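Bug #2210: token dump truncated for Aspartyl/glutamyl-tRNA(Asn/Gln) amidotransferase subunit B?
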Amino acid sequence: MKYEAVIGLEVHTELQTTTKIFCGCKTSFGAEPNTNVCPVCLGLPGVLPVLNKRVLEFAVRAGLALNCEISRFSKFDRKNYYYPDLPKNFQTSQFDLPICERGHLDIEVNGEKKQIRITRAHMEEDAGKLVHHGTSITDSDYSLVDYNRTGTPLLEIVTEPDMRSAKEAVAYLEKMRAILQYIGISDCRMEEGSLRCDANVSVRPVGQKELGTKTEIKNINSFKGVEKAIEYEALRQAEILEDGGKIIQETRTWDEKEGVTKSMRTKEEANDYRYFPEPDLAPFTVSEEYIEDIRKTLPELPDERRERYIANFGLSSTDAQYMTNDKDTSDYFEKVVAAGADPKASVNWIMGEFASQLSNAGIEIAKAPVTPENLAKLLALIAKGTISGKIAKKVFAEMWKDGADPEEIVKAQGLVQISDTGALKELVVKVIANNPKAVEDFKAGKKKAVGALVGQIMKETKGKANPKVINELLNDELKKL
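Reproduced locally. Full output below:
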């Protein structure tokens, strides 16, 4: 029997505020454990929370960017459960009256477009962080608790079960991250936990309308992890059903090292949390004027920017998608083009040599030592024929060391491309004379023989000869033979 996966995602993003959602503690990442805490976020007796107005603004901003309806009347609720990283034994969240509802986000996978419905987006506080002493939560001897993250503002964005593959889930996450970055409410650094994903996965026979029993995979912190975890879990469930077994509704964790999901606990239902309205925070209203004021501040979003790149820069749909998936990459690209570089050449370098150097250095594009203006200068040197593409890679490697100006590197190292027809013609005649075997191969119809001759000339000139001029001269001389 053939099965299909049914996937829904819950994305938790930390909002980029300077202070926590209900107190004045800092939200900075990397502080010493248990230093960014106070009686409010630790839930000590007699304290009262106060909503950070910036959190509400960011939530409305996200809702508008995700095509959601913004609730005019909303409130906070207590979600009751016990866990070591939750000092109050309840989480202040939103239950039946979330700030955002009924939105959608469009994705494209393998050329096919699809709309993913967003059920809701609500504000809540983050819990603390368990530091496990072992390779993972399932094999640790003990865990320590850091409460610095407790009370950090979160926006939880929940989809309908509209995705049918791990690739669709990743496409949704990439688009979601881009939108949240563009509107400036989160840095979305998955490695720091500011963007986390829970995946609800079930399988069912193809053609069946009823949903299967789902499992929830908690806190996956990379796109690759999301793809692998969903693929593994869907296959695991399909094999159980094929063998006549039943799926247990449970919470599972993704073990990156072993490449498997592992059971953590049976899945809770909403009534297990005993939700009730938060008595220390009054319900609040959001005016039409407030919403419209925020709507006016929304920037150009990824889809709009992508269409502009296709229309104005002549980029392919794939290239435009790549250039808009990450805001920092898109901003860098815009600056390179603004400095006079050809858009397509800029894309090729950013996706190729530039991306390779970023990967090797393990840094993001915002921290790249090569400025957009200097990359544009390098591309101009190639376009003018001052240097070849091969030499450009050598120059770029030098630029990467300390951000040096490419024109100065070319001048200092004598890397200017040789395009003098007279000088190159003498060399072409010499190389032809010294390589009779290649010449005979050419006469015998082996066109690749020209490549061997070009290689000899490039070797003689230490890679500085203009390939276009060489090929033209070679063809002219070989025709005479």
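Output looks complete on our side. The mean pLDDT is 91. Marking as cannot-reproduce; reopen if the truncation happens again.
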